[in-house]
Amino acid sequence: MTAPEEPRNAEIPAPAALAEEPPFAAAPAVPAPVPAPKRLTRSRNDKMLGGVCGGLAEYFGVDPTWVRIAFVVSVVFPGPQLLIYLLLWLVIPQD
User: Fold this and answer.
1) Among 33, 56, 69, 88, which is least packed by CB within 10 angstroms?
2) What ranges do the domains of the chain cover?
3) Nearest one of 36, 38, 44, 39 to 94, comparing CA atoms
4) What is the SS3 assignment for 80?
5) Residue 53 near residue 89, CB atoms below 8 Å
6) Minimal CA–CA distance to 66: which of 76, 75, 54, 78?
């Protein structure tokens, strides 16, 4: 008679690295910093009249020249552009 064979799984040793580590990694104790919210303000440094175009450009991350050009082009068309600019000049706080 032949001797019974041992199971093959018993012959494979467990890796040492897996036996020492927990099944899950611990989460970091310090939460990630929260960035400050963006605020729409009139620009003190980059202004021609009231700083509205400079503030809008800073808020949206574009060059203030492009915002000014867009405003001048929009004034050519009928509408309340100047009134909106004056209203924004009064409502938007200065930085």
Assistant:
1) 33
2) 33-91
3) 44
4) coil
5) no
6) 54
**Type of residue numbered 90:** L
How far apart are alpha carbons 94 and 17 in whole angstroms?
59
For residue 95, the number of C-alpha atoms closer than 13 Å in the C-beta half-sphere is: 17
Summarize pLDDT for 75-84 with one digit per residue, the tens.
Answer: 999 999 999 9
Q: Decide which of 63 and 26 is more confident.
A: 63
89: CB partners within 8 A, 6+ apart: 42, 49, 50, 52
Question: Is the pTM higher than 0.70?
Answer: no
